[in-house]
Task: inverse folding
């Protein structure tokens, strides 16, 4: 069972699972296709991914261009991240706005990011194991991204700028205002 928490951007959802704890530990249902479709939206996830990162790593802000656009359902198994979804749908009333949520191995929250959003996260703990489901297969030729430090977005990644660790690729993305419209 899960509780759906709506955000200030339609379709971007925080999911709070019902956790059963006792002296042995805990149990929760991390995903139910039926309940997800009843409470969030109808979709079929086709690919699961996992990454491991250390403190200060910032991945993003990534997206897949149509026809390989992806919705994602993300969660943290171990550690903590600040997870961010940016609306990049031209003509959307929330274009350029974002939602951020702290996901941890302790709070077990999940974050649903629909198609038409750039996604990224910063690692707040010493180490993180991050998992996500995608509703479309990864396509390298359809990669897109926007700058993590775009001043128009002004995202507080909760890491000092001098401690941010980026891939070579993530250090060279355009600002949102310079992005060719893809959605």
Result:
């Amino acid at each position: 069972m899960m509780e759906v928490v709506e955000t200030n951007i339609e379709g971007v959802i925080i999911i709070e699972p019902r956790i059963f704890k006792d002296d042995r530990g805990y149990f929760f249902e991390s995903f139910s296709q039926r309940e997800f479709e009843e409470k969030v939206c109808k979709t079929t996830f086709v690919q699961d991914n996992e990454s491991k990162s250390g403190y200060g790593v910032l991945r993003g802000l990534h997206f897949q261009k149509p026809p390989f656009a992806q919705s994602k359902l993300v969660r943290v198994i171990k550690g903590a991240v600040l997870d961010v979804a940016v609306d990049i749908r031209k003509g959307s009333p929330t274009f350029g706005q974002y939602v951020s949520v702290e996901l941890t191995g302790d709070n077990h929250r999940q974050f649903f990011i629909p198609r038409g959003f750039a996604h990224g996260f910063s690692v707040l703990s010493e180490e993180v194991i991050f998992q996500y489901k995608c509703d479309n297969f990864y396509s390298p030729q359809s990669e897109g991204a926007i700058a993590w430090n775009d001043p128009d977005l002004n995202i507080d990644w909760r890491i000092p700028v001098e401690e941010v660790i980026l891939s070579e690729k993530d250090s060279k993305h355009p600002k949102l205002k310079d992005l060719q419209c893809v959605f």
User: Anything to note?
Assistant: The CA atoms of residues 1 and 131 lie 20 Å apart. The chain has one helix and 13 strands. The chain has a mean pLDDT of 96. Residues 45-178 form a domain with the Jelly Rolls fold (CATH 2.60.120.10).
